[in-house]
Amino acid sequence: MSTPVQLTDVRKVYGTGPGAVDALAGVTYGFAAGTFTAVMGPSGSGKSTLLHCAAGLDSPTSGDVQLAGRSLRGLDETALTELRREQVAFVFQSFNLMPALTVRQNVVLPLTLAGKAPDDAWVTEVIRRVGLGERSKHRPSELSGGQQQRVAIARALAGRTAITFADEPTGALDTTTALEVLTLLRDQSRELGQTIAMVTHDPVAASYADRVVFLVDGQIVAETTHPTPEAVAAHLAQLSTRNTPNPT
Ligand SMILES: Nc1ncnc2c1ncn2[C@@H]1O[C@H](COP(=O)(O)OP(=O)(O)OP(=O)(O)O)[C@@H](O)[C@H]1O
Question: pTM here?
Answer without folding.
Answer: 0.91
